């Protein structure tokens, strides 16, 4: 113990004379550092750690430690960077290249009584093996994974996905781990929640987070939970990865923390939609997003940027000032569907149709004959009636109308109808004597 001349002041203003000071080696989650403690002659006082010491031991994380630009700085930035998509990309290389890294780490919580499982490596085809080795080296160089030499309690397999361009993607296959993970139960927004925020919007941009999950660092213990086996030894993910059951919720939550306070920004996992009534308003919002991304070291995919467009593709729909319609790619997928051969295929077909049901009047009634085939006691028998219904639904989707987006400032007319097969409410408003359907 050393002599200490520091005088401490309590919350109430009273002074405390220390007995002395001492340096101790402290550890937390495999992190070690030497911390100087001041000793006081009061056995009822609990040991306290200062903020600097907590940061050294990775006990606290700064999530939104950001710089908020002033108005003049935003105007200057907009004039410099937003004249076109190409110039936007050229002037913002800092947020459009490389691998991002959110501030702070995330923790994967598991049940206290969880029994660790170690999975041996799966065999990899000889033609894929060199690609796997190359991918592992690439991810290790990027700081996304790290080699594991010592034994671990949890070891999962991986799934190797071959892309069309010949490269591969590595996904964790944590079947055992997912059974014991404690979910965060974050409320994920739906398109119905977004629609009121898109009323009368005429200028849009979409920014897609590049390798989204990989931008979130894991804490030490969570990283060890994400250890996986390969023919080249064991590795562990240092960043959040696909396959973890709680990953989407963590990702949505962190993106909401990072950008959720910026008015005019809608966040759905890795897609940020900027919607505004004018170019000036749009550019102000986009400038805030760019500055925020720079301060938090967040990266977007430059190949997926939709920049200052009059209509935008988002969540399987196309939005513009007139309203919304189905994404042509989804319509094409429905039109190209083959007639189902069994109940499993019919479920898949109805799932695709159901996502676009708002564009089909009396959807429940029109699909009643198809849904009847899914009943447990009904034998599969595809008849002319079913074929006719199937083609009619494809035709309705192919010719789907533009639906207006709800505007609370306009008078609306409510209409409802029902039958033994379904319930069909719609809300409409009048514009130039033409009624625009809102939902059904």
UniProtKB/TrEMBL annotation:
Name the CDD domains for this protein: RT_LTR
Domain Reverse transcriptase intervals: 142-319
Which GO BP terms sit in this record?
DNA biosynthetic process
Q: What is this protein called?
A: Transposon Ty3-G Gag-Pol polyprotein
A Pfam entry, by short name: RVT_1
- Gene name of the encoded protein: TY3B-G_745
């Amino acid at each position: 113990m050393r002599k200490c001349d520091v005088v401490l002041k309590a919350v109430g203003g009273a002074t405390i004379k220390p007995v002395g000071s001492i340096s101790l080696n402290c550890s937390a989650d495999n992190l070690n550092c030497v911390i100087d403690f001041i000793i006081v002659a009061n056995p009822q006082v609990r040991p306290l750690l200062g903020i600097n010491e907590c940061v050294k031991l990775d006990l606290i994380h700064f999530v939104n430690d950001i710089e908020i630009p002033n108005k003049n700085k935003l105007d200057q930035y907009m004039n410099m960077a937003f004249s076109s998509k190409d110039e936007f990309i050229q002037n913002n290389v800092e947020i459009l290249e490389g691998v991002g890294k959110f501030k702070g780490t995330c923790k994967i919580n598991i049940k206290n009584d969880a029994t660790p499982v170690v999975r041996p490596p799966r065999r990899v085809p000889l033609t894929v093996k060199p690609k796997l080795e190359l991918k592992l080296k690439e991810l290790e160089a990027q700081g996304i994974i790290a080699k594991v030499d010592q034994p671990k309690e949890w070891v999962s397999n991986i799934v190797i996905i071959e892309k069309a361009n010949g490269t591969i993607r590595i996904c964790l296959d944590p079947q055992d781990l997912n059974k014991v993970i404690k979910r965060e139960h974050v409320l994920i927004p739906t398109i119905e929640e977004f629609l009121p925020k898109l009323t009368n919007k005429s200028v849009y941009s979409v920014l897609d987070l590049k390798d989204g999950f990989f931008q979130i660092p894991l804490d030490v213990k969570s990283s060890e939970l994400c250890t996986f086996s390969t023919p080249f030894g064991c590795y562990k993910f240092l960043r959040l990865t696909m396959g973890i059951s709680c990953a989407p919720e963590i990702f949505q939550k962190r993106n909401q923390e990072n950008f959720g306070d910026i008015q005019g920004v809608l966040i759905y996992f890795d897609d940020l939609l900027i919607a505004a009534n004018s170019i000036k308003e749009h550019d102000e919002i986009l400038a805030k997003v760019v500055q925020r991304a720079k301060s938090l070291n967040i990266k977007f995919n430059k190949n997926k940027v939709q920049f200052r467009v009059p209509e935008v593709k988002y969540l399987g729909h196309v939005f513009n000032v007139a309203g919304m319609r189905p994404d042509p790619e989804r319509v094409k997928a429905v039109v190209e569907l083959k007639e189902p051969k069994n109940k499993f295929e019919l479920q898949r077909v109805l799932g695709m149709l159901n996502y676009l049901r708002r564009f089909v009047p009396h959807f429940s009634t029109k699909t009643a004959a198809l849904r009847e085939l899914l009943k447990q006691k009904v034998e599969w028998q595809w008849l002319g009636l079913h074929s006719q219904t199937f083609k009619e639904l494809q035709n309705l989707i192919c010719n789907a109308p533009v639906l207006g987006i709800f505007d609370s400032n306009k008078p609306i007319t409510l209409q409802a109808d029902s039958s033994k097969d379904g319930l069909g409410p719609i809300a409409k408003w009048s514009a130039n004597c033409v009624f625009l359907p809102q939902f059904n």
